[in-house]
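Standup notes, structure subgroup. Blocker cleared on the flavin-adenine dinucleotide input:
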Amino acid sequence: MKKITGVDILEDEIKENLTTRNIYEIFNNFIIPLISEEERDFLENVEDFLIKKLEPKIDLNKDVYPLFPILGKKNYIQRLNQYGDTERFGMRYEMLLAMATSIMDPELDLARVVSGDIFANPLFLHGKGEHIAEVLDNVMSGEKIGCLCITEREHGCDAVNMQTTIEEYEDHLILNGEKVYTSNGPIGDYFLVFGVSNKNDPRGSMYQIIAEREMEGIEVNRLGIQSIPRVQVGQTIFNSVKIPKQNVLAARGQGYKNLFSGLVAERDAIIGSSLGIGWLTAITALIYTNLHTQFGRPIYDFQAVSFPIAKLFTELMAATELGFKSASEYRKTLKYSDPKFIKYNAAFSSGTKFLASNLAYKISYETQQLCGGIAFTDNLRIDKALEVSKVQEIIGGARNIQLYLVSRGIRDIVKRLALL
Ligand SMILES: Cc1cc2nc3c(=O)[nH]c(=O)nc-3n(C[C@H](O)[C@H](O)[C@H](O)COP(=O)(O)OP(=O)(O)OC[C@H]3O[C@@H](n4cnc5c(N)ncnc54)[C@H](O)[C@@H]3O)c2cc1C
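Run returned:
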C-alpha cells in the first residue's frame, strides 16, 4: 500500500506487527465463532485475495476506482445477490466482504458498497431484460460504476417530497432535476434516480429509473468532501434527459415502495462497512498499545489505556453479533410481505445501522486518543478510518432519521397493544 506524504516515525517492531495479515488474524479470532464453516472459508479466501492482489495496488494518493476491476475479477464487487456461479451470496456474505474490505481500505469499501449494493441491488431485484443484465455485467466486473440519486438540496431527510420530475411518454420518459451528494457521481456510468410525475403526490407518482452517462443532458460536478478524498461525490443535474423505457425499474407509484424496501438493504450493507472500520481501528490500537512503550513499559499496561480498549472491544463484539442478526433478518424481508414484519425490519436495520456507524466513529476517535500522536499521522490507519466513519454515519440516512424509524417502530408496538 502506497501511503500519503508524511515521514515514517513508527518503530520498526510495531510496523512489522501492524500488517493487514495480523489484523485479519486477530479479527478472525473474534468473528469465526459467530459464523458458519462456509462463511469462514469465504472470509479467509477474501482476506487472502485482498492481501495478495489488492493491497499492493492501493495508492492512498489516488482515487479508489482503478481498484474496482481487481475486485470484479473475483466477483467481489458485491455478495448480496447471486451473480456468476457462486452459491456464497446473501447479506451475511456481503457483510463479511464489507468487513474484510473496510479493514484494508475503508474508502474503497464505501465506494464499492454504493456501486455493488446500493446501485445494483434494485437491478437484481426489479430489473428485467437484456439491457439491465448488461448493465449488471458491467458493474459487477468493476469496469463501470453505479451511483444512487435520492437526495436533493431541500429534500434530504425529507426524501419523499422530492422535486425531480419524470414525465412519461409512449416510448420514453423525460427526467429533470438536481440531485446532490451523489457518491461516485462525478465518475459514475449509471445513475439510479428517483423522481415524481406529480410533486403533490410523490407516493403515488414516484418512478425509479436508470440514467446513463452518455445520455444527453446530464451534468455532474464534484463536491468538496474532504473526509473521503479518494471517493468522488457530486452534484448531478438532469436537464431534460430522455430515458428509454427499458431503463425503468419501477413505474409510476411503484418507485415509492422500491425506495423504502431498498433502504433496508442499503443500511445493512453500510453496517458491514462500519463494523469493518470498528475492527480495523480497535485491533490497530490493541497491537500498537501492546508494543509501544512509555515510562519503560507497554502503554497497554496502564489500565487507563487497556480498560477503555477492552470496553470498546466488548461493544464491538455485541454490535457485530447484532449486525449478523440484522443480515439474517434481511432474508425474511424478501420472503414475507406482512406489513408488520416489514416495519419491524425497517426499524431493526435502522437501529443497527445507527449503532454500528456511531460505534465505528467512537472507536476510531477514542483509539486515536489512546494511541497518541502517531494515530494522527498516516503511519497508522486510524485517522483515515475516523474520517470515513463520519461519512458512514450520514449516508443511508442521517442518524436522526434512523432514530426516528426506531422510535416510530417501538411506538407502533405500544399502539398495537392499545395503550395509547
Ligand atoms: C459524503 C456523503 C455521501 C452521500 N452519498 C449519497 C448518495 O450516494 N446518494 C444520495 O442520494 N444521498 C447521498 N448522501 C446524502 C445523505 O443521505 C444525506 O446527507 C442525508 O440523508 C441527510 O440529508 P441532508 O444532508 O440533506 O440533511 P437535511 O435533510 O438538510 O437535515 C439536516 C439535519 O437536520 C436534522 N433533521 C432533519 N430532519 C429531521 C427530522 N425530521 N427529525 C430530526 N432531525 C432532523 C438531522 O440532524 C440532519 O442531519 C450523501 C451524503 C454525504 C455527506
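Discussed briefly. The first strand starts at residue 146 and ends at 149.
Next: hand off to the docking folks.
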